[in-house]
Amino acid sequence: MKPERRPACNQFSSGPCAKRPGWSLGALGEAVIGRSHRSKLGKARLQEVIELSRRVLGVPADYRIAIVPASDTGAVEMALWSLLGPRPVDLLAWESFGDGWVADVLKQLRLPEARRIGAAYGQLPDLGQVDPAHDVVFTWNGTTSGVRVPDGDWISDDRQGLTICDATSAAFAMDLPWRKLDVVTWSWQKVLGGEAAHGMLVLGPRAVERLESYVPPWPMPKLFRMVAGGKLVEGLFEGETINTPSMLAVEDAIDGLKWAESVGGLDGLVARTRANFAAIDRWVAATPWIRFLAEAPATRSTTSVCLVFADDWFRGLTSEAQAKVAKEVAAKLEAEGVALDVGSYRDAPAGLRIWAGATVETADVEALLPWIDWAYGQVRPT
Ligand SMILES: Cc1ncc(COP(=O)(O)O)c(C=O)c1O
């Protein structure tokens, strides 16, 4: 039997994520378009993104925040290319995005003293292996496996190396211990449902010190350059940008940040996300044929919730057949108009991935879950 209730919003994609409740194109009515982003008005809008981000996230006053090109990838690569080299590097990877950064450092930068500390999908690597004398690169929330670091307790307060954290599906949904993090990045189209285009790059004082004291031996494209004459380009952290930003995307980012404040700031966003996750968690506990891909409860992402089918029938299938089943389930949900884009990521084990970040309403998550019961029942032989 098909459930009677449908989610009011069927957008559960893990990026670009659902717009905030009540969003319409009208939210962009005041956008500074057809004007220079360097005009007083344009620059003020860019500064507003920086200031609101600082306020909502509680970024310390001595940490700098920039809007940079090319989304989260741009922000991470800017950091890797600009900072790595003087120390050995520990690269943590447990899913596709973390492994992307490993490939960058090993195959592109070709740093001789870099090591991958990895784990299979569903697990976290042994964080105890991270050497505080080394730089470390990691994702806070592995979007493709739904595994996140539970906290920052494994990061030494007395570290000599830098911590470079890709926090794109964590920022605004999870508490980040800023003093443990020297570089933090995210993009706009995740937890606040903004538009893809630009990345956010946060630099702590130790990262700035590295930038001003170390010159990488490789060429630096203009898009990555944050230093001129051995000094940080401060304008970049005051609303100037390296190249031209989309002022429509900027306006939308401001809209998302103002909405964030209206629901109680970071605490409100975290609470909304946790309530969404809790709804899924209750359903998983009551449903014998599904489980979280993330094995340890403390590592389960509350935003990109990855689920795998767990009954004997499914586990007895080849991996190709499993992928086919998972795709069929996602396709049925989409055909019914109850959930869009909930198939697992292409490199991840076959299953479902449900975005549960702050822009998603808990009532919609609750309305979706009985539909997954229905869709899996349709695909599984009786
Ligand atoms: C953890 C993580 N890192 C990096 C990216 C890439 O982000 P972008 O497309 O904003 O560059 C994503 C996108 O989903 C992600 O989830």
Q: Any overview of this molecule?
A:
- By secondary structure, the protein is of the alpha/beta class.
- It is built from nine helices and 14 strands.
- It has helices spanning 40-57, 71-83, 96-108, 205-213, 247-262, 265-286, 312-315, 319-335, 362-379, and strands at 64-69, 89-93, 114-118, 135-139, 141-142, 147-148, 163-166, 183-187, 198-203, 227-228, 231-232, 290-292, 304-309, 352-355.
- The strands form four sheets. A seven-stranded mixed sheet has the order 1-9-8-7-4-2-3, sandwiched between helices.
- Strand 10 (227-228) and strand 11 (231-232) form a beta hairpin.
- The longest helix is centred in the C-terminal third of the chain and has 22 residues, at 265-286.
- The protein is globular, with a radius of gyration of 21 Å.
- Pyridoxal-5'-phosphate is lined by residues 15, 71-73, 97, 139, 143, 166, 168-169, 187, 196.
